[in-house]
Amino acid sequence: MAVEPLKIGIILGSTRDGRVSPQVGEWVKELADKRGDAAYEIVDIADYQLPLLGTTDGQEPGIAAWNQKLAELDGFVFIVQEYNHSLSAALKNAFDFAREAWNNKSAGIVSYGSTGGARAAEHVRGIMGELMIADVRTHPTLSLFTDFENFNTFKPASLHEANVNMMLDQVLSWGQALKPIRNV
Known about the structure:
Blueprint: E1 7-12, H1 21-35, E2 39-44, H2 61-72, E3 75-81, H3 89-96, E4 105-113, H4 118-130, E5 133-135, E6 141-143, E7 148-149, E8 153-154, H5 160-182
Parallel strand pairs: 1-2, 1-3, 3-4, 4-5, 4-6
Antiparallel strand pairs: 7-8
């Protein structure tokens, strides 16, 4: 029996005007698609127009659509940018609008910022633990100073490709391992 390929969502963690996360996400997807080992897709939280948690009765259609999309996926790659030593409010809000849809899935992080987004990624790891998302060790970090031209045009150093592929290996390995738990 053939094993169905995992579905991995590449989650864009920023919604602001002028964001560079779509450039980073497309680069990750391009590298991932070359592998041919899973179904990868960009998932842009901006498309779901999630309201600020606590300011709504929770009936907006974007909330249900967001949860449905997450439920369809077996794992994630979060594109995380660092804002004031942490993750964006939009990404935190998107985490908080789902619960069970995150559980028992694997995830990797590709982060960027002045220090490679490392501080934001550490905050994301804590959130993932609470949501029962198994985060992987390999974590590509991109510098605004060396991987972006004028801080807004993404031009990654080729050395990052090996780290992205190693991270994806780990996401897929853990995703396969966790699949039986999700199907119980």
